[in-house]
Amino acid sequence: DGGITQSPKYLFRKEGQNVTLSCEQNLNHDAMYWYRQDPGQGLRLIYYSQIVNDFQKGDIAEGYSVSREKKESFPLTVTSAQKNPTAFYLCASSIGQPFGYTFGSGTRLTVV
Amino acid sequence: AQRVTQPEKLLSVFKGAPVELKCNYSYSGSPELFWYVQYSRQRLQLLLRHISRESIKGFTADLNKGETSFHLKKPFAQEEDSAMYYCALSSPGNTPLVFGKGTRLSVIA
Question: Is B103:B8 a contact under the CB 8 Å cutoff?
Fold first, then answer.
C-alpha cells in the first residue's frame, strides 16, 4: 500500500529534551512538509522540503530542525528551544501542485 | 501575504438542510484552492480542488475571484458530513499550502 507513515502516534517528552518525529513515504513524492495543528489555529507550516538535501523554513520554524537525506524520509526534531511544543504534528507529501497533499495520521507530542 | 479566512469556527445544521462553509482568501494572483476534510479519528484528506471542478460526496466549491471566495456547498447535509473542514491556498509554483483555521461542521439528526 502506498502511503505516508508517521511514528510514533503518541510521544511524551520531558522539558529540556529533544525529540524526533518520524515521517516516511513510499509514494515517490518529491515534496514533504511538516505542519503543527493546534485547536483554533488551523495548520501552521514548520518546515518543508521540495527535493532531497534541501529544505526551507516555514512560518513557525523556531525551535525545530529537519533533515532530508532520503526522498522517503523527512524527520522533524523538536528541540528544547521550542517554547510550547505540546501539539499535534502532521507530515504531508506531494507530487506537486495542483494535486494537493497526502497527509500522515499525525503524532501527538506532550511535554511533561 | 497569502491568507485564508474561515469565519465560522463551528457550524451546526440539521440533516437534510443546505450547507455552506465559507472561505475567503487574500492573494493578488491566481491561486490554487483546496478543501480538506478531517473526519473523527481519521487523517486529513483532500476533498476538492478548484482546478478540477469536481463534486465529491455531494460537495461543490466555486472560485469567485471578484469576492476572493471559495465557499464549500452541499444541498442536503448528511450526518456523515460531520467533520472538520479546512480551506487551503497555494500560489502557482509549488509553494506550500496556507490553511485556514478550520470550521467544524456538525450535522444534527
Answer: yes
Write out residues in chain A with pLDDT < 70, as ranges: 1-2
Contact A48 B90 (CB under 8 A): no
Peptide bond into A85 cis (omega under 30): no
pLDDT tens across B53-76, in order? 778 899 999 889 899 999 999 999
* Among candidates A31, A58, A103 on the partner chain, residue whose Cβ is nearest the Cβ of B44: A103
DSSP annotation of B27 reads: -
From chain A, the residues in CB contact with B49 under 8 A are 98-100
Q: d(Cα B20, Cα B14) in Å, to the nearest integer?
A: 13
- Interface residues of B toward A, Cβ cutoff 8 Å, are 6, 9, 32, 34, 36, 43-46, 49, 51, 86, 90, 92-102
Spatial CA neighbour of B26 closest among B100, B101, B104, B103? B100
**Which among A90, A92, A97 has the least Cβ separation from residue B94?**
A97
pLDDT at site B56 = 85
Amino acid at site A1: D
